[in-house]
């Protein structure tokens, strides 16, 4: 309920940026119909005075917005209607966009963030990352798959989604701050998973060498977490600044290592780098094991606990070349993906 036309224009612009649909009331009788149920109420000084005189009950999540320095009378009206915040525009625009984004998305259980890293080139980290995201969708969740490796060729290729329309890095114009998850999912390629459409958002790097900026990665990952998504980030072995931004908020890091001596040595180096970020790291060991080394021996050599061991999966490479999204429902990759998904959910619950 805002009567100042310039302030109203500013609020409508910010609501559009937040992906928030606003219901406007022109007077207290109209406002009363939405007063109790609206997730957020925006008032200007005149509207706050009118609502107070009309006897609208105090409630939470009321924001009183003004342009310029608020006069002393504003605070009296704010107390009368229970306003928790008195904000000045344009100074508080970023804060208000964040509040409107939260209101639009509504209360949801917190999401989880998984980072997947290969112990060496060709270890299968991108395939596992895609498999975990697809498995989450099959189990009824919504997932966001984020490619943080500009030299990896593009995660959309792993899913056979390279021809789907939608934005890729660096075309996603995010410079930080709050991003509405609904708008993000609407802008991204979303390959169908079984009968579910729109439940898997894929933010892939394009085939250039320009990867995402750290602030953009942080904004995208946090948007998914706030919306309750399973966020899976595919990271390069040597963390870039963008990868470090994802690691900083990850609940768990899955380090994919193949079962051979050289990969174990390389994985130990990568594990040491990952350990500097203070996130729990777990090993996913992928066969075959040409020398007969066991998965737990590989994990000990790498220096991190074993999360899952994965046997070779006949036909997987051929299926990926045909553009079939992993994993097949009952193969070793699917089993490893389920184990990783359960582990990151447990880690997220422990952190919260």
Automatic annotation (TrEMBL):
<dbReference type="Pfam" id="PF26563">
    <property type="entry name" value="Rv3660c_N"/>
</dbReference>
<dbReference type="InterPro" id="IPR059050">
    <property type="entry name" value="Rv3660c_N"/>
</dbReference>
<dbReference type="GO" id="GO:0009898">
    <property type="term" value="C:cytoplasmic side of plasma membrane"/>
</dbReference>
<protein>
    <submittedName>
        <fullName>Secretion/DNA translocation related CpaE-like protein</fullName>
    </submittedName>
</protein>
<dbReference type="InterPro" id="IPR050625">
    <property type="entry name" value="ParA/MinD_ATPase"/>
</dbReference>
<dbReference type="InterPro" id="IPR022521">
    <property type="entry name" value="Rv3660c"/>
</dbReference>
<dbReference type="InterPro" id="IPR027417">
    <property type="entry name" value="P-loop_NTPase"/>
</dbReference>
<dbReference type="GO" id="GO:0016887">
    <property type="term" value="F:ATP hydrolysis activity"/>
</dbReference>
<dbReference type="GO" id="GO:0051782">
    <property type="term" value="P:negative regulation of cell division"/>
</dbReference>
<feature type="domain" description="Rv3660c-like CheY-like N-terminal">
    <location>
        <begin position="1"/>
        <end position="108"/>
    </location>
</feature>
<dbReference type="GO" id="GO:0005829">
    <property type="term" value="C:cytosol"/>
</dbReference>
<dbReference type="GO" id="GO:0005524">
    <property type="term" value="F:ATP binding"/>
</dbReference>
């Amino acid at each position: 309920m805002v009567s100042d036309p310039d302030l109203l224009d500013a609020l409508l612009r910010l609501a559009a940026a937040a992906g928030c649909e606003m219901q406007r009331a022109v007077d207290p009788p109209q406002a009363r119909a939405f007063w109790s149920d609206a997730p957020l109420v925006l008032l200007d000084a005149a509207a706050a005075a009118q609502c107070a005189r009309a006897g609208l009950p105090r409630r939470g999540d009321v924001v009183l917005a003004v342009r310029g320095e608020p006069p002393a009378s504003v605070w009296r009206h704010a107390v009368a209607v229970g306003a928790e915040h008195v904000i000045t525009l344009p100074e508080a625009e970023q804060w208000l966009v964040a509040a409107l984004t939260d209101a639009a998305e509504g209360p949801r259980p917190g999401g989880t963030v998984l980072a997947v890293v290969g112990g060496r080139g060709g270890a299968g980290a991108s395939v596992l990352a895609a498999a975990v995201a697809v498995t989450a969708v099959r189990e009824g969740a919504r997932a966001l798959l984020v490619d943080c490796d500009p030299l990896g060729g593009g995660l959309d290729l792993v899913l056979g989604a390279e021809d789907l329309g939608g934005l890729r890095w660096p075309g996603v114009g995010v410079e930080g701050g709050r991003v509405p998850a609904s708008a993000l999912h609407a802008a991204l390629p979303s390959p169908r998973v079984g009968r579910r459409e729109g439940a898997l958002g894929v933010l892939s790097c394009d085939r250039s060498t320009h990867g995402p900026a750290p602030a953009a990665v942080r904004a995208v990952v946090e948007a998914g977490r706030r919306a309750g998504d399973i966020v899976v980030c595919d990271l390069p072995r040597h963390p870039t600044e963008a990868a470090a931004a994802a690691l900083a908020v990850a609940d768990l890091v899955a380090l994919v290592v193949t079962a051979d001596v050289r990969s174990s040595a390389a994985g130990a180096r990568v594990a040491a780098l990952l350990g500097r970020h203070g996130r729990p790291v777990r090993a996913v060991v992928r066969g075959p094991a040409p020398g007969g080394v066991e998965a737990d021996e590989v994990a000990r050599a790498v220096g991190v606990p074993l999360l899952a061991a994965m046997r070779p999966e006949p036909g997987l490479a051929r299926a990926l070349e045909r553009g079939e999204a992993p994993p097949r429902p009952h193969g070793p990759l699917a089993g490893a993906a389920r184990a990783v998904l359960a582990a990151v959910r447990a880690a997220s619950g422990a952190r919260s």
